[in-house]
Write a structure and sequence with these properties.
Elements lengths: L3 E5 L7 H10 L1 H14 L3 H7 L6 H16 L7 E4 L3 H9 L4 H19 L6 E7 L3 H9 L4 E8 L2 E7 L3 H10 L3 E6 L9 H12 L11 E2 L6 E2 L2 H13 L2 E2 H10 L4 E5 L15 E5 L1 H4 L6 E4 L1
Parallel strand pairs: 1-2, 1-10, 2-7, 4-9, 10-11
Antiparallel strand pairs: 3-5, 3-6, 4-5, 7-8, 11-12
Length: 302
C-alpha cells in the first residue's frame, strides 16, 4: 500500500501570468486569497501586479497561497508533510501546527524583516547553486574562497553556497574547470549561519506571540530530517530556516523511514522534485499550470 507525503517547495521566481490566473480562476485559491487579503488588509494580487521584486512580500504571499490552495484540492490526507525553505510555513499549516491566517501574517512580517536586514547587512553576499561537482574538486574550490558558508545540500555534488559576490565569477569558472555546473544565484542570500541576527530579528517581530500547536501529521524539517512533534519544535524549525542550511538527502532519508513511497509537490518546483534523491519515490506534481488543465496525475519520476 502506498504512503504519501505532501512536499511544499521553496520559493523561486514564478511566471506571473500563470500564477495569478490560477489564483483568480481556481475556487480553492480564490477563497485562500480572500482570507489572506483580510489578514494583511490589502489585495495581495494587486500588490503582486504592481511589484517588480520576485521576492516581495506580495510575491511571497501569492506563492504561499498557491501552495496551500493546491494542497486543498487534493482529496486525500497525507501520511507526512515537509517543506523546503519557504515551503516550511505551508507545511506547518497543513500539519495542523500553524493556522493559515498566522502563516500569512508571519510571511508578511518576515518579508519586511528580510528586506530591512539585507538593505544594510551582507550586501556583498549571494547564494549560488551548483550541481554535478566531483567531491575532490568541490573541496579544492571551496579552499580557494576567502569566506563561504554552506546554505544547502540538494544531492550528491549538488550544493547551495553563500559567498562574497566579488568572488562569484572566479568561483563559477573554477566549478566548471573541475567538471561541475553552475545554476543560479540568489540575492538576497539564504540559509547561512552568518544570518543569525536576522533570525533574532524575525523571532522578535513575527514569532514572539505566534500561536503554534503540536502537529497532527508527521512534520519533517528541511534542516536535518527530524520529525517534529511539539509546537516548540515547530517554532525552532521555522526559525532555523534563517541560519541553518537545507539538507534534502536527510529529508528523503527521513521520509523513507516513515515508509513514504509517493511525494506530492504542492507548488511550483523546478529543483528538488527532479534530483536523484526524489527519483527514489513516485513524484507527482501539483502546480498552477497543471491545475488549470483537465485533471490528470503528473508523474515526474518513479
Amino acid at each position: 500500500m502506498s504512503s504519501a507525503a505532501f512536499v511544499f517547495p521553496g520559493m523561486a521566481p514564478s511566471k506571473f501570468a500563470e500564477l495569478t490566473k490560477f489564483l483568480v480562476l481556481d475556487a480553492s485559491a480564490r477563497q485562500r486569497v480572500a482570507e489572506a487579503d483580510d489578514v494583511v488588509g490589502y489585495s495581495i494580487l494587486d500588490a503582486y501586479a504592481d511589484g517588480e521584486d520576485d521576492y516581495s512580500a506580495a510575491a511571497q504571499l501569492a506563492f504561499l497561497v498557491s501552495c496551500v490552495a493546491l494542497a486543498d484540492s487534493l482529496t486525500f490526507r497525507p501520511d507526512a508533510v515537509t517543506g523546503v525553505s519557504f515551503g516550511q510555513k505551508a507545511a506547518a499549516v497543513y500539519s495542523g501546527a500553524l493556522s493559515f491566517a498566522d502563516a500569512v501574517r508571519l510571511t508578511a512580517i518576515q518579508a519586511d524583516c528580510e528586506a530591512e536586514y539585507f538593505a544594510s547587512q551582507h550586501q556583498d553576499v549571494v547564494t549560488h547553486t551548483v550541481m554535478r561537482v566531483p567531491e575532490d574538486g568541490w573541496r579544492t574550490v571551496l579552499g580557494e574562497l576567502s569566506w563561504y558558508e554552506i546554505s544547502g545540500v540538494v544531492d550528491d555534488g549538488f550544493h547551495m553556497i553563500s559567498l562574497h559576490e566579488g568572488e562569484l565569477e572566479e568561483f563559477t569558472r573554477r566549478i566548471s574547470a573541475v567538471g561541475g555546473y553552475s545554476l543560479y544565484t540568489m540575492r538576497p542570500p539564504v540559509h547561512a549561519p552568518a544570518f543569525e541576527a536576522l533570525r533574532r530579528r524575525a523571532s522578535a517581530a513575527a514569532f514572539g506571540d505566534c500561536p503554534l500547536r503540536d502537529p497532527e501529521i508527521p512534520l519533517v524539517t528541511d534542516q536535518d530530517g527530524t520529525v517534529v512533534t511539539t509546537a516548540a519544535q515547530v517554532r525552532t524549525m521555522l526559525l532555523d530556516t534563517f541560519d541553518r542550511p537545507i539538507d534534502w538527502p536527510s529529508v528523503t532519508a527521513s521520509l523513507h523511514r516513515l515508509d513514504v513511497t509517493e511525494l506530492h509537490f504542492c507548488g511550483t518546483d523546478n529543483l528538488f522534485s527532479r534530483v536523484p534523491r526524489a527519483k527514489e519515490f513516485k513524484v507527482v506534481a501539483h502546480n498552477p499550470k497543471l491545475a488549470l488543465k483537465p485533471r490528470r496525475e503528473a508523474v515526474l519520476a518513479g
